[in-house]
Write a structure and sequence with these properties.
mainly alpha; 9 helices
């Protein structure tokens, strides 16, 4: 149990990862009050990830208590499937994080700079940057970032929360699109035909 002892009860690590993964919320478009619940769910996901990775492995304790034996490392505690894929989960997480940050920051830059005109007091449809390929790059980035965390250190709370996060952000995106159709009409309908919601050329 040397690995268990060395990796956990690092509360500075817990705080560091909560801050690291939560800072992206500063670059998300808080679109009316309905953004708060998805953002809150994502924050709960991050806290669960950080605590189980560097604080206390609750999933291991709970499931071991239920089934009466310890889970092997990599099964709902420790690096995901470490015995079969090694540290590839960590590498996948890093790749997901790099792509996710690009999507979130590029989306934020284009919306912040090009959507609302202070001079005219009107909005314009943004189709530049990553918006040329997907309609909701920042939500795609957040979902990819969350998936990467599971690839590195999947736990029971993450498995439960991830489908909820996906559902909430898909629903939020659809609600936003209804407002975009009211604001931009046929221009947005054509844009919807030309681009996918979350994954270029896929969906």
């Amino acid at each position: 149990m040397e690995t268990l002892g060395s990796h956990f009860h690092n509360w500075f690590g817990v705080l560091f990862f909560i801050v690291l993964y939560s800072v992206v919320l500063l670059f998300m478009p808080f679109y009316k009050k309905m953004d708060k619940k998805p953002a809150g769910t994502y924050l709960a996901f991050v806290i669960a990830f950080a605590i189980e990775m560097h604080g206390i492995p609750f999933s291991m304790y709970v499931i071991s208590w239920v089934i009466g034996k310890n889970l092997p490392e990599g099964i709902l505690w420790g690096h995901t499937l470490v015995s079969s894929i090694g540290f590839w989960g960590m590498y996948i997480n890093i790749m997901c994080a790099v792509i996710a940050l690009f999507l979130i920051l590029n989306g934020w830059y284009n919306i912040y700079k090009k959507y609302w005109s202070k001079e005219t007091g009107t909005g314009s449809l943004v189709k530049t940057g990553v918006y040329r390929y997907i309609r909701h790059p920042q939500y795609s980035g957040l979902l990819l970032l969350s998936f990467g965390m599971m690839a590195e250190w999947v736990t029971l709370p993450l498995l439960i929360l991830y489908p909820v996060i996906v559902f909430m952000y898909v629903r939020l995106a659809k609600r936003e699109e209804k407002d975009m159709l009211v604001e931009f009409g046929d221009e947005y309908r054509e844009y919807m035909k030309e681009t996918k919601m979350f994954i270029p050329f896929v969906v």
